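Is this the right way to post structure tokens for a design question? Let me know if I should format differently. Anyway, here goes:
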């Protein structure tokens, strides 16, 4: 995809959604950090169902650090890998209290030093909580970037680097939101909804999904 096409693509995504936001529910950087950690290999919807009660019990790092793993696990047992995540949430909360006065740090190095926090989680927190133009590459971004020709790799870090080079500066802050949402709701893994995609004419992906055939009340195909 040429630079001019990339510009057009992101202009269209911005026109359709001028102020994209994370679909995770949170009220402060600490809750965002915990929610992103919990969202690994889980849906945002499942995380949003579990976190209100957890955050009511422990809305700060100081409060969460006072809980043990079993207490946290009881709140999040509907989320995949909940025991490992409970252990990480308690550990990162204690690290925040001991090393950062209970505040979420705004540097990548400090974030990635926390238990359970990898590059993708750090990128989300840096972008959403601190306004940095980072690009978090999840499965949706990986798929969409490759289908659109923005990257050619199955490795998240390589895709991230390619996107950082190719996304125009004017769109850098919100780019990962647009790509995630596009992959989540339009450019789906198994059956992309190409018939309602605003980027079809720019997309080199060869398998375009046709408009589904509607059924008439009699059961025959509708025109």
């Amino acid at each position: 995809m040429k630079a001019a096409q990339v510009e057009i693509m992101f202009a269209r995504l911005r026109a359709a959604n001028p102020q994209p936001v994370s679909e995770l529910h949170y009220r402060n950087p600490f809750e965002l950090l915990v929610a992103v950690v919990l969202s690994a290999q889980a849906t945002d919807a499942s995380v949003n169902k579990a976190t209100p009660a957890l955050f009511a019990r422990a809305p700060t790092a100081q409060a969460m650090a006072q809980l043990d793993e079993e207490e946290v696990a009881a709140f999040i047992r509907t989320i995949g890998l909940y025991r490992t995540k409970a252990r990480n949430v308690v550990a990162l909360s204690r690290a925040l209290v001991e090393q950062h006065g209970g505040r979420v740090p705004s540097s990548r190095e400090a974030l990635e030093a926390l238990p359970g926090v990898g590059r993708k989680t750090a990128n989300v927190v840096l972008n959403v909580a601190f306004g940095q133009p980072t690009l978090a590459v999840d499965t949706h971004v990986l798929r969409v970037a490759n289908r659109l020709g923005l990257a050619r790799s199955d490795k998240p870090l390589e895709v991230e680097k390619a996107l950082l080079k190719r996304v125009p500066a004017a769109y850098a802050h919100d780019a990962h939101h647009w790509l995630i949402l596009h992959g989540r709701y339009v450019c789906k893994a198994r059956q992309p909804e190409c018939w309602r995609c605003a980027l079809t004419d720019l997309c080199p992906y060869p398998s375009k999904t046709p408009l589904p055939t509607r059924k008439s009340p009699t059961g025959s195909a509708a025109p």
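Format looks fine. Someone answered above. Worth noting: The first helix runs from residue 3 to 16. The chain is about 50% helix and 0% strand.
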